[in-house]
């Protein structure tokens, strides 16, 4: 708990003065005002986060947090649970979707076992931070203890801090966990105060009972565990996931160290919401990547107050959307670092 509290205390507002300087420079670049659209607002945000008029994000890392979910026992997904293990082992080999997309910016993929159901070999290239062997079945009781929920957040903080100390300028959040759209929808249902049917989607594939059964399981879990709306750690403990907590920790650590963090789709946005509930100032450090196909994703983004920049009909997870957004952030930085103002252009012509 001490690490979590210290991290939250270290989160400060973004640099509004530098953001104003960035806006002023962008407005006098050799282009019509506003003509580069979201690239301009991204550049302003990056300047505010980093405190630099000419920000650089050369070293990128996507932290992929992996864990299993006991609620899979309820048949909420058509995918076998051992896919979590299989894919977790494939990340270090560079064989997954996020790995393929991340190659275009040479982004580092950091794979973390927060709660995979099976033991992972120590030489597999995966960071072993296992808290427990998957969550308990939330339809029969709390997914984890409050202490384990806090521990999951602190795992994310620790890993993110390690990457930042190693020189990472930009972080991305990703996850691997069969069945994790179920706890994500449960968390959002509690935070939004809505019926789970409004925020529950098919995920990677629902079980034989269909979407109605998945909704019913979530309703049962919420009724049984009675998570407190005003205590997000209680919500995470009762109906959440270990990798969701870890991603929330990554967001908190990024903000505490004045680093931008790009969130992926639905599950990553839920993790960002948890971080936001713990410290609202994290919002200004978050850059949303893409609009997930999951129905709860739009509601979660609205609650967080962010607008995804990409609409690609994606729903893979893993951090794939974050990796796809990285080149856009590179373009925003390149605009600031390489584009001349009209006055500078005239001076060059005169030389």
- The DSSP helix count reads 14
Radius of gyration: 20 Å
Q: Strand sequence of the main sheet, in spatial order?
A: 3-2-1-4-5-6
Unreliable stretches (pLDDT < 50, length at least 5) are none
Counting helices, strands and paired strands, the structural category is alpha/beta
User: How many strands appear in the DSSP assignment?
Assistant: 6
Round the mean pLDDT to the nearest integer and report it: 96
> H/E series, N to C?
HHHEHHEEHEHHHHEHEHHH
Determine the strand fraction and express it as a percent band. 5-15%
* Largest sheet composition: 6 strands, parallel
Helical fraction: 40-55%
Distance between the termini: 60 Å
User: Which word captures the global form?
Assistant: elongated
Characterize the structure shown.
48% of the residues lie in helices and 9% in strands. The longest helix has 20 residues, at 146-165. By secondary structure, it is α/β, with parallel strands linked by helices. Strands 3-2-1-4-5-6 form a six-stranded parallel β-sheet, sandwiched between helices.
Concise description?
By secondary structure, the chain is α/β, with parallel strands linked by helices. The chain contains 14 helices and six strands.
């Amino acid at each position: 708990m001490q690490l979590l509290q210290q991290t939250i205390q270290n989160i400060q507002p973004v640099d509004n003065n530098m953001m104003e300087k960035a806006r002023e420079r962008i407005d006098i670049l050799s282009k019509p005002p506003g003509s580069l659209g979201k690239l301009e607002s991204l550049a302003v945000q990056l300047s505010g986060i980093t405190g630099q008029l000419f920000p650089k994000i050369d070293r990128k890392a996507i932290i992929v947090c992996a864990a299993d979910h006991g609620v899979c026992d309820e048949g909420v997904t058509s995918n076998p649970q051992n896919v979590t293990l299989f894919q977790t082992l494939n990340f270090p080999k560079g064989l997954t979707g996020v790995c393929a997309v991340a190659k275009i910016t040479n982004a580092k993929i950091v794979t973390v076992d927060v709660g995979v159901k099976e033991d992972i070999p120590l030489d597999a290239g995966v960071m072993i931070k296992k808290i427990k062997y998957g969550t308990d079945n939330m339809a029969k009781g709390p997914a984890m203890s409050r202490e384990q929920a806090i521990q999951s957040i602190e795992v994310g903080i620790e890993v993110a801090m390690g990457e930042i100390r190693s020189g990472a300028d930009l972080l991305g959040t990703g996850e691997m966990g069969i069945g994790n759209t179920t706890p994500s929808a449960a968390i959002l249902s509690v935070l939004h105060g809505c019926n789970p049917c409004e925020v529950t989607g098919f995920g990677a594939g629902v079980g034989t009972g269909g979407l109605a059964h998945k909704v019913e399981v979530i309703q049962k879990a919420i009724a049984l565990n009675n998570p407190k709306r005003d205590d997000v750690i209680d919500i995470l403990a009762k109906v959440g996931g270990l990798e969701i907590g870890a991603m929330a920790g990554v967001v908190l650590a990024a903000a505490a160290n004045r680093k931008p963090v790009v969130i992926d789709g639905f599950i990553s946005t839920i993790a960002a919401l948890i971080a936001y509930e713990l410290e609202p100032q994290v919002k200004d450090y978050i850059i949303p990547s893409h609009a997930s196909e999951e129905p709860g994703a739009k509601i979660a983004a609205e609650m967080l107050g962010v607008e995804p920049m990409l609409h690609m009909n994606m729903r893979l997870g893993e951090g794939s959307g974050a990796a796809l957004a990285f080149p856009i952030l590179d373009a925003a930085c390149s605009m600031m670092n390489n584009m001349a103002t009209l006055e500078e252009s005239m001076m060059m012509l005169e030389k």
